[in-house]
Write a structure and sequence with these properties.
The chain has helices at 2-11, 17-35, 39-44, 49-60, 64-78, 83-94, 98-116, 120-127, 133-148, 154-168, 170-180. It is mainly α. It has two domains: 15-94, PSPTO4464-like domains (Diphtheria Toxin Repressor, domain 2, Orthogonal Bundle); 98-180, PSPTO4464-like domains (Diphtheria Toxin Repressor, domain 2). Helix 4 (49-60) runs antiparallel to helix 5 (64-78) and helix 9 packs antiparallel against helix 10 (154-168). The protein starts with a helix and ends with a helix.
Length: 184
């Protein structure tokens, strides 16, 4: 009888200490990933102000022990937030998510089509009305020259960066148009 009672008590205890420790360590590791982000990316992660301040403090600290304690504090704060949106944002930054991967493939294909045929600029102009077609033409021409002369692919990469900015959308393009004075 006593043996049976022992099993009943064991079932009611919930997660083991080891499981709680693993969960706590995972949250602390997620906090470390947050702490290693740059300012721009950190601003795009959906976290509350207390956690954001703690991460900024961690980035400011230089002493090993201070950073270690701050990471523990970040892990403690992470217990009160839903980690799923944070993980999704970090995965998107790393290009891990399926939509991010598909977007990169789509942009790579667009860049290759543009290099093969200048008429692709018409498609880009229709898809992205704010696109600077002159800049794209120059980058295309420079990328082709680089390939021909076996030089490092600077324009090739810049072309991808410009296409990615167009894909990411409106806010950046409108700001660029306002700064350069050629709003359409």
């Amino acid at each position: 009888m006593a043996k049976h009672k022992y099993h009943e008590d064991e079932e009611d205890t919930g997660p083991s200490k080891s499981a709680l420790k693993r969960e706590s360590t995972a949250l602390q590791d997620l906090g470390r990933e947050l702490a290693e982000l740059g300012k721009e990316r950190l601003a795009r992660v959906p976290i509350d102000d207390d956690l954001r301040d703690a991460v900024k403090d961690y980035q400011r600290f230089t002493a090993h022990e201070a950073r270690r304690r701050q990471l523990q504090y970040i892990g403690k704060l992470m217990r009160n937030v839903d980690p799923a949106p944070i993980r999704a944002a970090l995965d998107a930054f790393k290009g891990v998510s399926a939509t991010e991967t598909a977007k990169m493939h789509r942009l790579e294909n667009l860049r290759l089509r543009l290099l093969e045929d200048e008429k692709t600029l018409h498609t880009i102009a229709e898809t992205y009305p704010g696109a600077d077609l002159q800049q794209l033409r120059v980058l295309r021409r420079n990328a082709l020259k680089e390939k021909e002369q076996n030089r490092p692919p600077r324009a090739f990469r810049e072309l991808f960066r410009v296409l990615r900015e167009l894909e990411d959308g409106g806010v950046d393009d409108e700001a660029d148009n306002i700064e350069s004075g050629d709003e359409e």
